[in-house]
Write a structure and sequence with these properties.
single chain, alpha+beta
Amino acid sequence: MKLAQQPGRLFLWRGSALVISPGIDSSLHTHFALQLTYGLQRPFRVRLQTDQPWEVTRSACFAPHQAHQIDSDGGLLAHLFVEMPEMLNADCTAVPAAFAGVPAFQRMADSLQDGRHQMLDMAVATQLRHTWLSCALPESQLKPALDGRITTVLEQIAASRGLDCNGENLARLVHLSESRFTHLFRQQTGMSLSRYLLWSRMVDAVASVAAGNNMTAAAHASGFADLAHMSRTFRNMMGVPPSELQRMAIAFKQDQSA
């Protein structure tokens, strides 16, 4: 069996995801996560605008909100998405990305090739996630930890799966006015509360699919108006339709611990 024909794997944590899959058609898209991508079998093509020429690379780092398009011609890719890597000090978009030259990353990438990624469990995937991040994001590139009030709010959103979460309720939780809270949230996370809640619902929808629900049930369970709303959101954030989830083996960690 060719590697490009193997089913993909998706490991999902609250706030991050590791995807190992043959490359699929990707439209130009943006999302709210930091994205690290590596071509496990061969280089891939990437561009940041549709009117730009394609650039061939083996590695890439896309900052949150950075538009990008990837074409791997079916080659096996590894993607790591992280919602908030403690907030980067500067634009970290890089093609190619420096992490590919770090020995620890190369050892990790070797362990994902030749079909060995099909044997990964959640514990090993978690270690791979930590290794990749440590190679890609040295501490000097990171800002200090989030304000404790925002951390409390993010924990509440995760615990409630985003249901009944709005600016007024969350501001009251951390004893701030709604206007002060929404300003602080955007300042700390780099996105509005409404956009963060949309991302959180998308993550919950993926978890619902992983639990065995069909796409329509997953959409309703995660707070989307309907399947069409979830599909548009998923495509806008990930660059592919949510039907791709049905081609993957999905592992999901329910709690927020590493």
